[in-house]
Amino acid sequence: MSHWERVLEATTHARAAELFAYAHTLTGDDAIAAAVVEDALAAVFGRRAYPRTVDEAWTLLQHAMRRAAVRAHPTPSAPTSEAADEDDDLPADLRTLPVRERALLAMRYVDGLAVPAIAHETGLATHAVEDALTRAVESLSDTHPELRLSVRDALEGGTLAQDVVVIGAA
């Protein structure tokens, strides 16, 4: 078994649940999340400069999942923004957001990234990120005013980078 195969095996063994959970947070759909994880694994381990450690792989996979999630297309069974849900609960309302808007919202509020960092991570133009975040925040603000979401915070808040420190790496 080659080194990259050992790193891939170790990564999937150690982080499989986290990979799927993060992809599901970004997409809100099991089938799309599975496709995002597959795309990310192929992107990270399908190139010549593969990660050397599980931690390095995790960082690269998060980046690849962010890129894949904003490009994912809903499956026929996945709800779209036109789907109306009678329930007044947040998970249901998050599922009604288009995949791209949900992924960008997760990057902003789960990962704490600022708009320029999200644009860099996903390869989208800054204005495309701003437009999608604005639509997502306005949609959720209408149904969940208790969240006190604001377009201004969505567009101006967050951090520009996430630093990863690996201790004990060889």
From TrEMBL:
Stored Gene3D superfamilies: Winged helix-like DNA-binding domain superfamily/Winged helix DNA-binding domain (1.10.10.10)
Residues covered by region (Disordered): 70-90
Keyword field: DNA-directed RNA polymerase, Sigma factor, Transcription, Transcription regulation
Annotated signal peptide: none
Domain RNA polymerase sigma factor 70 region 4 type, first and last residues per copy: 94-140
Molecular function terms from GO: DNA binding; sigma factor activity
Source organism, top-level taxon: Bacteria
Any one annotated GO CC term: DNA-directed RNA polymerase complex
Alphabetical list of InterPro entries matching this protein: RNA_pol_sigma70_r4_t2 (IPR013249), RNA_pol_sigma_r3/r4-like (IPR013324), WH-like_DNA-bd_sf (IPR036388)
SUPFAM superfamilies documented for this protein: Sigma3 and sigma4 domains of RNA polymerase sigma factors (SSF88659)
GO process terms (BP): DNA-templated transcription initiation
Family in the record: Belongs to the sigma-70 factor family. ECF subfamily.
Listed name of the protein: DNA-directed RNA polymerase specialized sigma subunit, sigma24 family
Provenance organism: Demequina mangrovi
